[in-house]
Each structure stands twice: as structure tokens, then as C-alpha cells.
Design goal:
alpha/beta; 14 strands; six-stranded mixed beta sheet; binds pyridoxal-5'-phosphate
């Protein structure tokens, strides 16, 4: 039996905590982000032996969770969370051969965030079940997809309430509907401000003494419980055996998804590297190029779940990889809205594939990478959201309206509840303490 993995902050190497504490605290007390103190080694053989995506998930999470929770409890939680497929689709058509799309959007809220949110919810619930105490409030800022994935993932789990903050008028109508449908134990707040305001409010709430007695936790991608399961689908590509040593192209915002991929890589998953595909918010591509930039606000784009000024997981990436290694392993690209639409159109015309705007940013970066490097090897682009979440944009780009799966069409029949709030800490405190 290998040694129990503990968790530590990116800013302080002395204090280590259990998985339960890391999940519950979200952000470490020193303002840093939790990371496992050791990255285990997943032998490629063990990955290929896994019988299914779920089985792979259990094998990959074992070193991170075993010893912190009883085996029967956490394996059940993980199996429950990973209850949908992640198909790999090969693009076939002029200019797209060798590019594959890993569809991560077949969960209940149709984005890859279901994977992390569902797993975090169930693991946190399992950790809390052993300590009878006041309910925990999950506070989450969302630029669209996180909120609905977290609301859906946590809803109905006893002892866990959710308060979600989203920027009013800055998410698509479908995304908004997904956020505000009435769910057990969930409150949706429409903040009159930007996503960065929402994120700032959540951070401030954690530092507010008046809220200490509320047991607050976060379910943003700063929570390590979201990241760990996101490593699994990278390895699933290897398990399925259709593509060997690909480069992964990751549509990125807060860099949680990319960081999870890097953790899989460091744990032994063979791949050629990563492409960080950003929209006009190109803070990270600038960092990779060594261009110093002062942190600014976020720019609004068509791929709005990636509208992040300064990615919060950069601190984790930098703590996992020295600058030189990071530049060797990851290439960063930035794509305009114009190119996002043009790419969605070109891929549809050449292959018949309907890509959502986030995936289109990834597809554009994949092609740019090919042109720039001449690397003709396989590329796996992570398809992060279902095109039917963005029907207007997809229709504008391709002339075709994506068919909404049942999980979406049902939403319009359900009752909604939303509370508008000012972008101030006072307003949030009032809501959390009433
Ligand atoms: C959240 C999100 C992203 C960005 O993921 P990060 O982990 O924040 O980098 C990309 N695409 C979609 C559809 C998303 O919801």
C-alpha cells in the first residue's frame, strides 16, 4: 500500500491537510490553491487494463482518495459521478483529418464541468457524512457552465446548500435558464456586474469575519475536487486505444481543465503536449511567450465561459511545472470571435460536425498549431460544451440550428427562481445571513 497522499497549498509547503479539508476549504488559508503533495504514477498498462471509463476513474482517483474515505464509499461516489460517456469523434474531411474531438458534454448540464462538479459534490458529501455539523454552503461564481453543473451536481445532497453568482445579461439565454431553474437547496443570484466581480465577491466572502459561522466552501475550479476527476478523460483517450500519444488541445479560461491534463501527464500519461486555446482573453498565451502583461479585466467574447482576465489556476500550473518545462509542454493560442465563427462554419462544411463556440476556439487553435509547426500527428480537441447550449451562435456560424437534447428542452417547462443583486460584498453578506 503506497503512502497516503496529503494536500498542501501552492504558497506554503509546510502545512498539509486531508482530502476532506482541502475539499471543504476550497482555497487554502494562505490564499494559495491546494494540490496533492505528490503526483502518483499511473502506469500506462494499468490505464489500458481499465474496463470502462468509470473503472478508469476509480483506478486513477484511488491514490488521491484512498485512506481519506472508506473504499466502498468513495468508489460508489466516483461511479455515481461518472455516469455518462465521453466519446472520441474523428473529424473526417479536407483539412481536418487526424483531428479528433473528445465530447465531454454528455452529462446532465451538457458541459465538461459536470465531470468535476458531480465528483466534487459526491466526495464532499461523503467527507461530511462522517461529521454531523451545520450545513455547508457552496459559494460559486460562474461565467455560465460552472453554475449549472454545480447546482445540478449538488442539488439534493443533504447538508449541502448552493449559492451561485452569475453576471446578469452576460450568459446565453440557455445558460441562464440552466442556472435559474428551481432546484432543491440552490439559490441563484444575478449580479449586476462582470464575471470578475462575481469571482471577487466569492473571494471576499471567504475573508469576511461576519460569515465565519457559515460554513462556506467553493466549487469553482480552484477546488481540487473538481480538478482530480478531470484528469480521467485525458487518460480515457489512451484507454480506448484509437489515438496514440496525441497532443491535447484545451479550450481554456481559468485553466482548470488544462491543469488537470497536466496532472495526468505528470502521472505518466503519454501525450505529446498541450495546446491552450484561448479566446481574446490571452493572458496565458502571453505568459507562455514571456510577454509581461499587467493583469486586466476580462473581455467579452462569443465563447463566454472562457472570458477570464487572469486565470486562477495559473498558480497551480506554475507550481506543478517550472517555467521552462511549461513552455516545452504547452503552446498557447488566442482566437478572435471572427475566427471562432469562421472555424465553426469551415468544420461544419468540411465534416458536418457542429461545434459550440468554445470547441470552435479549440479547433481553430489546433489548425493554427498544425500550420505553424508542421506537426501532422493526432490532435485531440476537448469539446467542452454541447452546441445546443449556444443555438444562436451556432446557427449564425453554420446556418444550422443544433438539436437540443432532452436535458435542455425539458428546462423550459420547469419553474425558475433568481434574485438580482448589486456587485457589492454588503449585498452578498445580507443574502447569506438572512
Ligand atoms: C469552463 C469552460 C471552459 C474553460 O475551462 P477552464 O477549466 O476554466 O479553463 C471552456 N469551455 C466551456 C464550455 C466551459 O464551460
Amino acid at each position: 500500500m503506497s503512502e497516503l497522499i496529503q494536500y498542501g497549498s501552492t504558497r506554503n509547503s509546510d502545512r498539509t491537510v486531508s482530502l476532506g479539508t482541502a475539499l471543504l476549504e476550497g482555497l487554502a488559508h494562505d490564499g494559495g490553491l491546494y494540490l496533492p503533495r505528490r503526483i502518483p504514477n499511473h502506469a500506462p498498462g494499468a490505464i489500458r487494463e481499465a474496463r470502462s471509463f468509470t473503472d478508469l476513474g476509480v483506478r486513477m482517483l484511488r491514490p488521491y482518495v484512498a485512506g481519506h474515505l472508506p473504499d466502498a464509499v468513495w468508489t460508489q461516489a466516483v461511479q455515481d459521478a461518472l455516469s455518462f460517456p465521453v466519446p472520441l469523434v474523428a473529424m473526417e474531411g479536407a483539412g481536418w483529418d487526424g483531428i479528433h474531438v473528445l465530447e465531454l458534454f454528455h452529462g446532465p448540464t451538457l458541459s465538461f464541468k459536470d465531470v468535476g462538479a458531480r465528483t466534487l459534490a459526491r466526495l464532499l458529501h461523503a467527507c461530511l457524512a462522517s461529521e454531523p455539523a451545520a450545513p455547508v454552503t457552496v459559494l460559486v461564481a460562474t461565467s455560465g457552465d460552472t453554475g449549472s453543473a454545480v447546482a445540478d451536481g449538488f442539488s439534493g445532497l443533504p447538508g449541502l446548500d448552493v449559492v451561485l453568482l452569475y453576471p446578469l445579461g452576460q450568459v446565453s439565454p440557455v445558460q441562464e435558464r440552466q442556472l435559474i431553474v428551481r432546484r432543491d437547496g440552490v439559490r441563484a443570484l444575478a449580479v449586476r456586474g462582470s464575471f470578475d466581480d462575481c469571482q471577487r465577491l466569492v473571494k471576499e466572502a471567504f475573508r469576511t469575519p461576519a460569515l465565519r459561522h457559515r460554513r462556506l466552501t467553493s466549487a469553482n475550479s480552484i477546488n481540487i475536487g473538481r480538478l482530480l476527476p478531470q484528469s480521467i478523460y485525458y487518460a480515457e483517450v489512451l484507454r480506448s486505444g484509437t489515438v496514440k500519444t496525441p497532443i491535447f488541445c484545451v479550450p481554456s479560461g481559468n485553466l482548470g481543465n488544462l491543469t488537470a491534463g497536466v496532472m495526468a501527464h505528470l502521472a505518466g500519461m503519454p501525450n505529446r503536449g498541450f495546446i491552450a486555446a484561448h479566446n481574446a482573453n490571452h493572458f496565458f498565451p502571453d505568459v507562455l511567450r514571456g510577454v509581461g502583461r499587467r493583469p486586466g479585466g476580462s473581455i467579452r467574447t462569443l465563447s463566454n465561459a472562457m472570458d477570464v482576465g487572469v486565470p486562477s489556476n495559473l498558480e497551480r500550473l506554475q507550481s506543478l511545472l517550472p517555467a521552462e518545462a511549461m513552455r516545452r509542454l504547452i503552446r498557447g493560442y488566442s482566437t478572435t470571435d471572427e475566427d471562432t465563427l469562421a472555424t465553426a462554419r469551415r468544420v461544419y462544411e468540411a465534416t458536418g460536425y457542429l461545434a459550440d463556440p468554445h470547441t470552435a476556439v479549440g479547433l481553430h487553435a489546433a489548425q493554427t498549431y498544425r500550420e505553424e509547426t508542421g506537426d501532422g500527428g493526432p490532435i485531440v480537441v476537448l469539446a467542452t460544451a454541447h452546441p445546443a447550449k449556444f443555438p444562436d451562435i451556432v446557427e449564425k456560424a453554420t446556418g444550422t440550428t443544433p438539436v437540443a437534447p432532452k436535458a435542455l428542452s425539458d428546462l423550459w417547462e420547469r419553474p425558475v427562481h433568481v434574485e438580482p443583486v448589486a456587485p457589492t460584498l454588503e449585498a452578498l453578506i445580507e443574502i447569506l445571513t438572512d
